[in-house]
Amino acid sequence: MATLENKNAKVVMKPGREKSIRNRHPWIFSGGIREVQGDYQPGDIVSVFDAKQRFLGKGFINRASQIRVRLLTFQDEDITADFFRTRLQQAIAHRQALLPPDTNAYRLIHSDGDGLSGLTVDRYGEWLVAQFHSAGVEQQKSLLTDLLSEITKTKGILERSDMKSRRAEGLETDNQSLNGAVPPAAEILENNLRFQVDLEKGQKTGFFLDQRENRQIIGNLSAGKRLLNCFSYSGGFSVYGAQQGAQTTSLDISKEAITLAKENFALNNLPTDNHQFISANAFEWLREMPETYDVIVLDPPAFVKAKQQVNKGARGYKDINRLAIAQVASGGLVLTCSCSSYISWDLFRKIIFSAAQEAGRTVQIIARPGQSFDHPINIYHPEGEYLKTFLLRVW
Fold this sequence. Notes:
The protein is an alpha/beta fold. Helix content is about 30%, strand content about 30%. The protein is built from ten helices and 20 strands. The chain has a seven-stranded mixed β-sheet, sandwiched between helices. A six-stranded mixed β-sheet has the order 2-6-5-4-1-3. A five-stranded mixed β-sheet has the order 7-8-9-10-11.
């Protein structure tokens, strides 16, 4: 089978800068490279060697990115179409083995977590939504599309490569149908609950699949209680709570999101008598909250999207957590989330500590759930653990 590698180019590391590669971290930054020998195009697959010309691995190279090489393998093996077929099959088999019953929406490919740096693919029933974050997977887009169609037998694949991160790879944003005629919206099933997903313009790829297990936790714990779902988007946590008999309030600044949340209540035949849908700024609304809630969910968008934003973003996380901790009923629960990869578990815990201290209440951590199983974390790549959540009890 024909190789997909550029055999005329190779990367040579600076002396002593190969440790992270030997520890199987998949990213090589430009500062660790001594030279690149030979000509190459952005996204080419090249071999990497240490300063003594010992083989280290193979991966996508891109001179436009600070992540100069995204490693695919640490073995001296041929990179062919079958290499990518095997990686895709392995990832898909993992999901099929662990998928909860009555669920047809999940992450199929999770970038470095599945050894395919820069590629994310979500499945929504009969459709796939793909994002190509790196020049390497962009170059292999046609092959990957064909392989995904062959393996999954889905009706169509929509590309949603509209992320700002593509600019760091020297790529333009790109939204298009790659295979089949994908509808603008689709209905999915998650743990036997139904949701309408905006495939074309919805947040992320349309739905927050990484919160599946957390939605189920909150649904069970809020049974018969008053649930406030801040940054509610399409109402996922609210639907789970309402299905268990909770009295819910869905709060989001986007009127379109609130409309979608109402549609999801209707899809599940949930009466809206005991439920509120409010379009408002969560910070402002929490400061003047008209009633007390037993359970509050904080799942805001990423406040930190670059390293230089950490201090400002941390203040935002502290403010929203202080407000929720101060307002929740005594003995109540707060599920607080950060999807900012630059906010570590340790930093997020310190932020919550400061918020609790300023609120002047007793706070217990009773669980630390994270991202769903279909968002696996490569043990050698801690950056892949982007979602941090704490379940708090407040007195």
